[in-house]
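Late entry, evening session. Most of the bench is empty. Finally got around to the prediction I had been postponing all week. Sequence below, unchanged from the version circulated by S.P.
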Amino acid sequence: MQYLIGVDLGTSGTKTVLFDIHGKEIASSLEEYPMYQPQNGWAEQEPDDWWKAAMNTIKAVIAKSGVDPKDIAGLSLSGQMHGLVLTDENGNALGRSIIWCDNRTIESCEEFTRLVGGRERLIQIAANPALTGFTAGKVLWVREHEPEIWAKARHIQLPKDYVRLKLTGEYHMDMSDASGTNLLDVPNRCWSQEICEKTGIPMDMLPPLVESSDVAGHITEEASRLTGLAVGMPVAAGAGDNMAAAIGTGVVKEGKAFTTIGTSGVVFAHSNSVQIDPAGRVHTFCAAVPGQYIVMGVGLAAGMSLKWCRDTFFQSEIEVAREMGTDSYVLMNQEAARSPIGANRLIYLPYLMGERSPILDPESRGVLFGLSAMHTKKDIVRAVMEGVMYSQWHNLNVLRGMHVAPNAMLACGGGAKSPFWRQMMADMFNMPVSTLQNTEGPALGAAILAGVGAGIYKDVPSACEEILKESEPLLPDAQRHAAYEPYFELYQKIYLDLKNEFHTLAQL
């Protein structure tokens, strides 16, 4: 029997899963690491924390499974996108990575856009506006504010690419992750010479581009010693986390889409051709399927909002859940179900870290609108869950306007494990919502990419068709959909009414 490994480098931790070639999970291991926020709106992580977590979890799944490393045919990675990793000439990380949910680069993004020739020209080339989460603004910020680091920098990398460098000793970046840098000519799938020349970013700092299923190196002797993997085992390039999740959920052809509720929230649809929103409200990226594209809207604080709610209001439930041997989120779901649609006229805007799609406003902040003395924890948690889903509904409507939205949805991420949240999704979206029997979307997607790279599978779509099986869908309820609609309309209006006040607050 042959096996494959998928390494999912997330924001809260790295999860490594060993699968057989039929997609069955054999063993998994998770190692968490901190996120640092030295200032309001900043978010950083240590690249070597990612490497240690990958190293330790790879060793753990090999040990747990008892599999002979020589029977592992390949490995690939899924990674949090956009984070800037600068390395020196020896491949050493130069300090912490500024990660995807960091918002310090507002002025740098404005300067980047000006240098390229304006927002419209940038979207024509890179398919997306300059956003604070994206990589290019971070490059300009470091160049201006940390010149001593910039002077030592020789390579620009993304989080999973740094880990792959440690495994293989080779520099590469895949098309899907490169799409989120603002430096890629997305329609032509190559680095943009025009953008680099206009902004003064040296093209020789950018790694060679490959497709996600291409082999991007082999396990070195040093990596073998540290992980237990066999020397010379092929490592496929991998993909950004959402593109890997698309592979792991079978969203690999037109008409397929998924919504994920992880730390961030994503509505994601596959497209056979480049589809760009001229307003830049949602992202157009290269897919992890070679030659294909995707459109997605990203909310920055989906599961993060629920975690904030849990840690702030539900300490007693955390203790009770520990005693019961269950998950505290299960108890929170039960509380939310006791509150009616609309959470007794309480509406939550999930902008804890500013917001990306579709409002593109890094200075926006979270709001509990309508809070009164009658509200209790059950209303607050329901309002938070509804607010996160209103954000995804808002993005779905943009995709509908671009004619890339489907008639059914797959749910993945931690939130997809909640039947209550899935039903809320079905009712708001007014479409059936399914899950997959295998819930390891990004890790499984990475493993499938590894299998294609190693020659186990012919290509990505045929592998997904062979491996993935959907659950029976939850169906929408027309009355509940109608009940949500006026709250959703008000949700959208609240941001518009507060937009100027958010910017005033940011200046205080």
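Two things to note before I forget:
The chain has a mean pLDDT of 96.
Residues 478-507 form the longest helix (30 residues).
Will write this up properly tomorrow.
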